[in-house]
Amino acid sequence: MKESYIYILSNKNHTVLYIGVTSNLKDRIQQHKNGTGSIFTKKYNIVMLMYFETFTNINEAIKREKQLKKWNKKWKWELIQSINPQLKDLYQDLIH
């Protein structure tokens, strides 16, 4: 089965969050970094991968994405910091 992912991006000042779903995390994050991911991420320079989860079923990933989009910002940041306390760009780990 093909893996799917939900991911959370932020800008360098950590003031804006973006949640997305994809079947190719590395390529999708690269699109955001190149300014071709979405109009929203390009406008607010949201290019840092803060968090992601892996799924074996795209429908489960979409369900999780919808759940996280309903969360308040504080909960999202707590989730991010639970696996990424330094708030580093996790994309570097994907490409190495």
From TrEMBL:
Q: Does the keyword Nuclease apply?
A: yes
In terms of InterPro entries, this protein maps to: GIY-YIG_endonuc (IPR000305), GIY-YIG_endonuc_sf (IPR035901), UPF0213_domain (IPR050190)
**Domain of life the protein comes from:** Bacteria
Question: Which GO molecular function annotation, any one, does this entry have?
Answer: endonuclease activity
Domain GIY-YIG stretches = 2-79
Q: Does the keyword Nuclease apply?
A: yes
Q: Mind telling me which Pfam families this protein's record contains?
A: GIY-YIG
Q: Which UniProt keywords apply?
A: Endonuclease, Hydrolase, Nuclease
List, alphabetically, the SUPFAM superfamilies matched: GIY-YIG endonuclease
Q: Which family does it belong to?
A: Belongs to the UPF0213 family.
Concerning PANTHER family, the annotation shows: BSL5627 PROTEIN, UPF0213 PROTEIN YHBQ
Q: Which protein are we looking at?
A: Putative endonuclease
Q: Which organism is it from?
A: Lutibacter oricola
